[in-house]
Write a structure and sequence with these properties.
Layout lengths: L3 E7 L3 H12 L6 E8 L5 H11 L3 E6 L4 H11 L4 E4 L5 E2 L3 H6 L9 E12 L8 E3 L2 H5 L5 E3 L17 E4 H4 L21 H11 L2 E13 L13 H14 L6 H21 L7 H13 L2 H6 L6 H10 L17 E7 L3 H12 L6 E8 L5 H11 L3 E6 L5 H11 L4 E4 L4 E3 L1 H14 L3 E5 L5 H10 L19 E5 L8 H7 L4 E4 H7 L13 H10 L3 E5 L6 E3 L11 H4 L12 H13 L3 H21 L4 H19 L1 H4 L7 H12 L2 H31 L1 H16 L2 H16 L1
Parallel strand pairs: 1-2, 1-4, 2-3, 6-10, 11-12, 11-14, 12-13, 16-19
Antiparallel strand pairs: 4-9, 5-10, 6-7, 6-9, 8-10, 14-18, 15-20, 16-18, 17-19
Helix pairs in contact: 1-2, 7-8, 8-9, 8-10, 13-14, 18-20, 18-23, 22-23, 23-24, 23-26, 26-27
């Protein structure tokens, strides 16, 4: 009888199979059998299996009709002769020392070792000139860096992570019923792969008498097989597996830590369905499946996990259950003075915070028009809940392929206010600020009011106004006690040609439009416009207006960016990993280039060349500064650098022509000496980023070392030890909501 039986369920993996079987053949531990199951393979997999069996009789070929991963593994468990069971996936491979190392921890003085588990590598095949690459999974980072043994109730950490049943070996008698429950452990016989390793993982980990852990990585888990079973095709599948695991766990005596780990797994799977795999959580069936999961959770225990769960998971849970919304009921205004348009798409992670802030408005006669571009998350569901109670909210839904032109057209067809603002959904602007902006727009009867806190170009604007006979030099002098600064205007774009187009981008979305002015002229957003600034729309409006004003709001300024951000790794692996939330913002360079074409078509490019080139320089450098991976930086430069450099012609115009000196200096650095100076600029940027990180780390360290922090930390820990868990959960919920606010 062999010591280990290795089960390999095989279906159409000829590309990777030889590497897998060869890694088994060269094991330094020799006493094994390998049961190779062709699960109805239609490619050359069976021939590869037969070739290994012909050379080494430890390999055994079983050719059968297709039954799926679970049923195939079960056949292997019934046929296995070994004392220990290993399951290897045919597109992966293993270290030559894997079985020798694992079997070195097969005995214990504290009980029977049922599972011997190690860590593993995430393996990426090389491409586009890159060699193969490895990443360490979170399991390795969170588990002990030494050999240890435990039960799951004693140490629940493995239950937080990927099942990785293939990086472990299992005592066959344990699987056949020699366990705490006297239960035969098998896979669910589900067609296909079906994530059937999940219930198997739960049953084995919970029922094991002792689990031996080795920190070494002996299994190579391939991430780049396009046909891998980990790629989700049916959104019901993870919910089915969670339901099966939940039913099993409900019959077992598990610790709170194990329960928390399972909750974390449920959150991970929900996020995978609606984030990584892109299914729409507006779908009623998906929402019912998510609600089934959330209804099964003990709310108190979820809130007690705030130190372990990612904050966005807790926020999503509270938002989905409708427990975190603070919606203030208001009636629909008969004649709103200000229409606030929010263009949304997949804004789940911050949209509740924005809607709550706006729902608190009491004294501003306004309406909120939400125009959604086919969000695949819960954005629209949240918006509907606010609209049901706060009648100032109106929701318009367009498909995901709707253009920016169509989104803005829908918004303008819906708004009823005298004035309109387009505010990005991840910004919150205070009611006091909007009241001041509305007052300034009304007072000047302007077509467009640009909002600012001071104005670096005020001397230029004042000079233009004095030349037009508006006011005296003294009338534009501010006093410290004034709550608001001066109003500069009215202007037409041709009054301030050196500033008009640059102001379009500099003021971004900080524009209050007269609604009738927009509608009467039939302005359209450009197809390249982005929601953060709508530069094409703004340029058309600026060229048409005779009444543009700049409002210095001074002490009334209150604007916050509440977008949650996450940055992917700066390496090609980030291209393989789907990152649903990223801090790499949309670039507006295409919109700026479109504005340039519009100016040329209208024959006014020469008039506005200086302000346009300043807008182009700022846009280009912003786009470059906010690309984070080498690939994205290279792509951006390859696409835009030559065209922008030719248009800017900095040799002709010189430094004094451009307003943003930092942007100009950086542009010189990346163009002056070719690749060498570009590399130096990138190094300089990286060092500046590191300095910022070090500075923040130092500030945090100083806070943690402060007496006030330590006293507060001790007080909180004391409360957690002695206060009822329900009280701790309530306190943590309030703290989380306070952080969000």
């Amino acid at each position: 009888m062999p010591k280990i039986s290795i089960i390999v369920p095989i279906y159409n993996v000829e590309t990777y199979l030889t590497q897998c079987l060869e890694s088994i053949r060269v094991q330094t531990f020799k006493d094994w059998e390998c049961l190779m199951f062709s699960d109805g393979s239609k490619d050359g997999s069976l021939d590869i299996m037969k070739s290994f069996a012909a050379k080494d009789d430890r390999f055994k070929v079983i050719d059968k009709k297709n039954e799926g991963y679970g049923a195939t593994c079960n056949r292997g468990l019934e046929m296995a002769q070994g004392e220990w069971i290993s399951i290897i996936e045919p597109d992966d491979f293993i270290d030559p020392n894997m079985y020798a190392r694992l079997l070195g921890s097969a005995s214990s003085t504290q009980g029977t070792v049922d599972i011997i588990k190690s860590s593993y590598w995430l393996f990426y095949d090389g491409h586009d000139g890159y060699k193969d690459a490895l990443l360490t999974p979170n399991l390795s980072n969170m588990m002990p860096q030494r050999r240890t043994e435990f039960t799951l109730n004693e140490f629940a950490e493995p239950f937080y992570h990927h099942p990785s049943i293939w990086s472990a070996i299992y005592r066959k008698a344990f699987l056949n019923g020699d366990n705490k429950a006297g239960m035969t452990i098998r896979f669910k016989p589900i067609p296909g792969a079906g994530w059937t390793d999940n219930p198997f993982f739960a049953q084995t980990m919970v029922l094991a008498d002792r689990i031996s852990w080795l920190p070494g990585k002996y299994y190579y888990y391939r991430q780049t097989n396009p046909g891998a079973s980990s790629l989700l095709k049916d959104y019901r599948m993870p919910f089915d597996r969670l339901r099966e695991m939940r039913a099993f766990l409900d019959t077992q005596d598990i610790s709170d830590d194990v329960r928390h780990a399972f909750y974390s797994r449920e959150f991970d799977y929900i996020t995978s369905v609606i984030g990584e795999f892109g299914f729409d959580d507006k779908d009623e069936e998906i929402r019912s499946l998510i609600r089934e999961v959330f209804d099964s959770m003990d709310r108190k225990e979820v809130l007690l996990m705030l130190g372990r769960l990612r904050p966005e998971f807790v926020d999503y849970y509270l938002d989905f259950m409708g427990e975190s919304y603070e919606i203030h009921p208001h009636e629909r205004p008969v004649a709103p003075e200000l229409s606030i348009v929010l263009l949304t798409k997949d804004a789940r992670s911050w949209i509740v915070d924005a809607f709550e802030a706006y729902s608190k408005f009491k004294n501003l006669p306004c309406e909120f028009v939400i125009v959604d571009a086919g969000s695949q998350d819960s954005t629209v569901n949240v918006a509907r809940q606010f609209a049901a109670k706060d009648k100032r909210f109106t929701v318009r839904e367009l498909p995901s392929d709707a253009t920016m032109t169509e989104l803005v057209d829908e918004a303008l067809a819906t708004v009823r206010g005298t004035y309109t603002m387009f505010i990005p959904s991840h910004f919150v602007i205070g009611e006091k600020t909007l009241r001041a902006a509305l007052a300034g727009a009304r007072r000047t009867n302007s077509d467009i009011a640009l909002l600012d806190i001071g104005n670096i170009h005020c001397d230029y604007l004042i000079e233009k106004l004095l030349n037009k006979g508006y006011g005296t030099p003294e009338s534009y002098m501010d006093a410290p006690e004034n709550k608001r600064g001066p109003i500069y205007g009215p202007f037409s774009a041709t009054d301030i040609p050196e500033l008009a187009m640059a102001s379009n981008r500099d003021y971004s979305w900080h524009k209050v439009y007269n609604t009738a002015f927009l509608k009467n002229h039939g302005f359209k957003a450009d197809e390249h416009d982005i929601a953060d600034n709508l530069l094409g729309l703004g340029a058309q409006a600026l060229l048409a207006t005779e009444s543009l004003v700049f409002l210095d709001l001074k002490t009334d300024w209150d604007i916050r960016d509440i977008q949650r951000k996450q940055v992917g790794g700066a390496f090609w692996l980030s291209l393989e990993k789907i990152i649903p939330y990223t801090s790499e913002p949309e670039t507006d360079i295409e919109s700026v280039l479109a504005v340039g074409e519009m100016l040329r078509e209208r024959g006014v490019y020469d008039t506005f060349e200086k302000s346009y080139l300043n807008m182009l320089l700022s846009s280009f450098m912003f786009g470059l500064q906010t690309r984070y991976t080498p690939e994205r930086i290279t792509e951006f430069l390859d696409t835009y650098l030559d065209k922008v450099a030719a248009t800017l012609d900095i040799d002709k115009h010189g430094a004094l022509y451009f307003y943003d000196t930092d942007a100009f200096n950086n542009f010189q650095k990346i163009t002056f000496g070719g690749a060498r100076t570009l590399d130096l600029w990138l190094e300089e940027r990286a060092l500046a980023d590191e300095d910022g990180i070090f500075g923040r780390d130092k500030a945090l360290e100083e806070i943690h070392r402060s007496a006030r922090f330590r006293i507060g930390e001790n007080a909180v820990n004391t409360m957690k030890r002695f206060a009822p868990s329900s009280l701790v959960a309530t306190a943590q919920e309030k703290a989380r909501l306070l952080k969000r606010g």
